[in-house]
Amino acid sequence: MYHQFYKLSGPPFNLTPDNRFFFGSTGHTRAISHLMYGLAQEEGFVVITGEVGAGKTTLVERLTAQLGSGAFVIARIVTTLVSGEELLRLVVGSFGVRDTAGDKATLLRRFEQTVAEHHRFGRRCLLIVDEAQNLPLAALEELRMLSNITVGGRASVQMILLGQPQFRDMLASRDLDQLRQRVLASYHLGPLDAAETRSYIEHRLRTVGWVGDPSWDDDAFAAIFAHTQGIPRRINTLCSRVLLYGALEEAHRLTAPIVNDVAAELARDLGANGAAPQSEPIPAAAAALSEDATARLAALEDQLARQRRTLDRLLGLLSAYAESAA
Questions:
Q1: What is the pLDDT of residues 27-42, one digit of tens each?
Q2: Predicted confidence band of residue 315 (pLDDT cuts 50, 70, 90)
Q3: 240-256: average pLDDT
Q4: For strand 124-129 and strand 253-254, is the pairing parallel, antiparallel, or unpaired?
């Protein structure tokens, strides 16, 4: 909705990973380099870790777009709360094994045949596993065993493991010594710094045709960094709400107070640590209201009136959006 008000070609801050919006920060560029180095070895594991929302999935979207579809058969596993055997069946099915029933030996034989066929046609097999920190040790061991399978003297499949920071601690476990020895490249993706946060926001806006409307004060960018700590997904969430606020208020200049107000509203909506916000107790009787409580009630009524006006504007935007879509 707000992108129509600001005459943008689309929403710039969607949470769904989209390769079009890839931003080559220092960290993301180095992570891509580690991925490319690992892939050049044609064997083993590449590990990328980072905080929730740091951009790991977007990074892989960028990588797969660069690789193209001809030279690689790419399988992605995003459901990692599974047992070792369940993961094995997911993996072999993702590479084209149609029948994943039967015992483990039969399953591995079918996998080897399928991978050998891919290699015959010059296609390398790449497995990408997201949320790897959720994998039990037995599942990680199954991945290691798959990495041991060779076709024509070459590794049958190469693997990229994406995980949150705790995955690094898991890999340091003595139980995973053999897997750790097969890690060819590893990189931890950190947050954006203040300057990169501003560049990231402007990059995403320009991708959808932004030419300065709305304008952003320098302090607004600084406030966004302060509230998000440079985590891309948090930046997207906050910026999307800031632009919605700007559209509802018909603001063409976004300031630090606006960002702070929206961030506070977002925090109230989510509650502490993402929990639902707690409602304040209502006084038992109006007659017992103190002077301070009366002032608070008046302020609440004013807030409700502003929310009604905001709702009216939102309904107007929805109506205009529906008309244009029709």
A1: 999 999 999 999 998 8
A2: low
A3: 95
A4: unpaired
- 145 vs 126: CA distance, rounded Å: 15
The answer to pTM > 0.85 is no
Pairing between β-strand 150-151 and β-strand 154-155 as defined by DSSP bridges: antiparallel
Under the banding of pLDDT at 50, 70 and 90, the label for residue 314 is low
How far apart are alpha carbons 66 and 8 in whole angstroms?
A: 27
Structure tokens at 170: 């898991």
Is 98 or 200 the better-scoring residue by pLDDT? 200
pLDDT at 277: 38
Q: Which residues contact 83 (CB under 8 A, 6 or more apart)?
A: 136, 138, 139
User: Smallest Cα–Cα separation from 60: which of 18, 2, 4?
Assistant: 18
> Nearest Cα to 59, choosing from 85, 38, 29?
29
DSSP 102-155: S-HHHHHHHHHHHHHHHHHTT-EEEEEESSGGG--HHHHHHHHHHHH-EETTEE
Per-residue pLDDT tens over the stretch 2-14: 889 999 999 999 9
pLDDT of residue 300: 53
What domains sit in the chain, N to C, each tagged with a CATH number? 2-10+193-277+290-325 (no CATH), 26-189 (3.40.50.300)
User: Strand pairing partners for 49?
Assistant: 163, 188
Gap between the Cα atoms of 45 and 323, Å rounded? 51
User: According to the model, what pLDDT value does residue 325 have?
Assistant: 58
Q: Report the alpha-carbon distance of residue 122 to residue 128 in Å, rounded.
A: 19
pLDDT at 272: 45
Crossing angle of helices 256-270 and 232-248, rounded to 10°: 110
- Closest alpha carbon to 157 in 118, 127, 113: 127
CB 49 within 8 A of CB 168: yes
The token pair that represents 73 in the structure block? 């058969």
157: Cβ–Cβ under 8 A, 6 or more apart, which residues? 95, 115, 125, 126, 127, 146, 147, 149
Element spanning 302, H or E:
helix 291-325
